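Lab notebook, bench 4. The sequencing result for the construct came back, and we need a structural model before the next group meeting so we can plan mutations. Quick request posted to the team channel:

Model the 3D structure of this chain.
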Amino acid sequence: MNDHPQDPQAIFITGAASGIGRETAKLFARHGWRVGAADLDEMGLASLAGELGPERCQTGRLDVRDAAAYRARLDAFAAWTGHRLDILFNCAGIMKMSPFEETPLEVHVRTVEVNILGVLNGIHTAFPLLKATPGAHIVTMGSASALYGVPDLATYSASKFFIRGLTEGLSLEFEKHGITVTDLMPLYVDTPMVRTRTYHAGSLKTFGAKLTPQQIAELVWKAAHGKKGPLEADPSPEDAGLPWRRAAVRVAADDEDGGPAAVKGEEKRT
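Done. Here's the predicted structure in token form:
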């Protein structure tokens, strides 16, 4: 149970040392939230902690594949926040671009472990804290590659299909607990993970990495503060190309006519 309901709101972010996770940590800290930042990159975490300060940010090394380590990290976070967890942001993920058969099997396996098992570990471990925090949210980084299988990115794409299915199922299942479940489904974002690729899939050559980590961080903020259900208003210009969904409703980027399209089930509204 939340022992101190008046404590500042709190978000726990995996993959927080760089890219989308780091920008999200900075955004929420600016809004007065307490931020739990976890990553394998200890140098990146140290610089983030120095930037945000100890009142706003608690950091810790975490391999999201390790359930016991995840539990220990969340226990430390809960002790710091008064057992409050308003948002779990599953941002940690890895991606390998290359032909399937040329990618070592262990790389495929690690992709599945980080992108799928890491999210399962996070949600399952965080569930008691989320349930005890009124209005809690789970936000997970998905991908536009969860809308269709992507060549040279097949295992990553498949892992995001899993996130899509998990989000849809849990968004209904967790309603009775008062927990809102959301995933973000952007096209390529200009992060170190994308920028350092030596092999470029055809989809990256076609679409480029035009979105910024700051834009996705803003979307995390909106996803965590909007009401459950479809987006009724037209997306603002700065939202173009930023797909997200709550429950079974999502906004998919770059429809054939160049604009966003709202999708619910098999119905498409432009």
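The chain has eight helices and ten strands.
Will bring this to the meeting.
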